[in-house]
Amino acid sequence: MKCEVVAVGTELLLGQVIDTNSAWIGEQLALLGIDSHFQTKVGDNLDRIRSALTDALGRSDAVVVCGGLGPTQDDITRDALAAVMGVELRRSEEIVERIQGIFTSRNRAMPLSNLRQADVPEGAVVCPLIPGTAPGLACPVGEKVIYAVPGVPWEMKEMFTGWIADDLRRRAANSAVILSRTLRTWGESESALAEMLDGVIARLDRNPTATLAFLASGMEGLKVRLTAKAGSETEALTVLDAEEAAVREAIGDHLIFATDSETMESAVLELCRGRGFSLAVAESLTGGMIGSRLVAAPGASDVFRGSLVAYSGEVKRNLLGVPDGPVVSAAAVSAMAEGACDLFGADCSIAVSGVAGPSESEGVKPGTVWMATTVDAQTQARRFLFPFDRERTRQFTTISALNALRLRLLQIDKDPVPWH
Amino acid sequence: MKCEVVAVGTELLLGQVIDTNSAWIGEQLALLGIDSHFQTKVGDNLDRIRSALTDALGRSDAVVVCGGLGPTQDDITRDALAAVMGVELRRSEEIVERIQGIFTSRNRAMPLSNLRQADVPEGAVVCPLIPGTAPGLACPVGEKVIYAVPGVPWEMKEMFTGWIADDLRRRAANSAVILSRTLRTWGESESALAEMLDGVIARLDRNPTATLAFLASGMEGLKVRLTAKAGSETEALTVLDAEEAAVREAIGDHLIFATDSETMESAVLELCRGRGFSLAVAESLTGGMIGSRLVAAPGASDVFRGSLVAYSGEVKRNLLGVPDGPVVSAAAVSAMAEGACDLFGADCSIAVSGVAGPSESEGVKPGTVWMATTVDAQTQARRFLFPFDRERTRQFTTISALNALRLRLLQIDKDPVPWH
Known about the structure:
Two copies of one chain form a homodimer. Mean pLDDT of chain A is 92; it is low at 416-420. The longest helix of chain A is centred in the middle third of the chain and has 20 residues, at 153-172. A six-stranded mixed sheet of chain A has the order 2-1-3-8-7-6, sandwiched between helices. Chain A contains 14 helices and 17 strands. Chain A has helices spanning 10-13, 21-31, 46-59, 77-85, 93-105, 153-172, 190-196, 198-206, 233-251, 264-275, 289-295, 313-320, 330-344, 390-409, and strands spanning 3-8, 38-42, 62-66, 89-91, 119-121, 125-126, 137-141, 144-149, 177-185, 210-216, 222-230, 256-259, 279-283, 304-310, 348-354, 368-375, 378-385. In chain A, helix 2 (21-31) packs parallel to helix 6 (153-172), helix 3 crosses helix 4 and helix 10 (264-275) packs parallel to helix 14 (390-409). At the A-B interface, helix 1, helix 2, strand 2, helix 3 and helix 5 of A face helix 2, strand 2, helix 3, helix 7 and strand 10 of B.
């Protein structure tokens, strides 16, 4: 079974928006065991969208087309689909009501243009999920199918995982099961991990029961992904369990902070929860990013008390009891960590103080970051030097600080150096 | 003149690497006044690369193919080019020496596999610039041309700007300049903006001096992009200035918070700076996202004092003087805003308190958010109801709260409703 992706939008061709949807869908298709040999970007032009869809359908069994389902004049994917199917567009009263309902629930009048989103090619099936106002469509063309989803990533993902994936699986009638497991690591570079894993990699090359890939994912960690293709889910899981054990053996448990979609912050919150600890944060250069990541996980409130974003030295001194002197220092960051525990009445804390750049501050080089953790009134501080731009320095500071607390809560006295 | 982009690499189709090269090249082509109607991703497969190149060349005058020029066995773009040109590959001694030289200069032995990079299709012109070890190629096919560049972004960019751009300009003999301008809005839906702009859109349809497109970009705002193609940069700028004025006239200045790459937070910081105001934040459901966005802009420190992430009701009461009673309320969020000014000694502040979901909290429906702004000791609070998931509720809360302060600093008493 083959499935292509067609991303619609002139802004994608002009490079004003980067098409990340095709890559995400390609990854999902791979996990479903479906080949995706071509992926195409095309602009908001009826003839060209039609020809892109026709070409894709000629080469493959299914096509996912993203974008061009909005309410405006340049959203013409519906028209292109009708043309490819050789049918007319019909307005669906049911969809009109659903869209109308969305606006009513917000006490807004529905602009008439939104009605265009209720136009459905005859014979197309409407996706039962409508996360936004754009309905998704499954358009049969002979034995083949074109799925149309919005270009808005979260709407597209909801429809793909909640609807298209099942339909594709059914069509593929793929007896092979492809499962993958992602081990999220922090503390070593890709090349260092590759060296630690060369034995595993060599063995998998000789006997490919599974594939192993590295995915550098910034604040989400450096991922080691294992993918197994087997006759049944049980077989695939057995292979993944064995290979996960081999990887953990080779690189050491402490580098692996989470599995699959679990994050560094959820791992830290879970460790705190297990020990009955409440958590506070004091942030400088991260500006609230650490707190923001912590509350991204539902249920953070039973552990996370709060964060003080002390962006000025004065605030650090007044609210956290930071002593006079340089604020990017072991003394300052330690005082911040202890001050955070006092201020929020927390059992443990994380503090960061540094220079995100681009220019140096008070004679301190950009990328210089001090981090401290306080656990049971014991404080440890360490200095990091990141060779990154402002944004990546703040992101690496966030995950590195969370990881420092994770290791302390695990009582692993190892300091990963997460940026070479 | 039309030029397509073909990105080669199975990792692109599998979503392990996101293809940013095509977008970058598309942007460069637009600035050269060259149309790019299709962009294709294809895996490391000889037949499929050949067919992608043939299709692209059939539709366009030129093609830029990225990737597959490396030294390994799966780097087969050279072979595909020879096949499309109908010629043989010949090893270029000159390139062998250049690659050899690169390794020697690094005191490293050249792996024999690198010799493959010296294989050139007969009749192809080698790019004089070799930033890495992969040589770029210009392959004439009749009157048309295929440029082959490495997939490594910095190598590709160096070759494109230093070599391909000039050759394309010469071939296009194109004096046209294409410039675009993005107006970032917040407060109305895409369909509502489209209705306000229908006069402008209709006029541009009749007389297309410029194109107008909407780009929904989440926390970056809903963008209205104007693109003008003209004989000279001056002409293009004149058109953009006139159309920007028309758009501002049609939708009202207050909806437009920034232009091009300027962000909501930089707009707010600039307004504070202009009034000599310092800024403080008190955050609940956003967990630090507002502060984190503010410090993303270099130089925020002259305005932004800090943020208190008060994630527990107790912290809100103890540190911000929130009265007893419900914390998602006008009274609580107003106290938070005033408490933030006191705590950080700031002239103005933003406060948010709400339920990000997924489940309700203390009987309050998910998506319910109270926001307050304090300016000159005057506090205003408003209630929002977002129909989103947890993460997007936090993001929309962040930009909406910043926008609320922006409007107050501009003394525009209008409350945008920024979420359909």
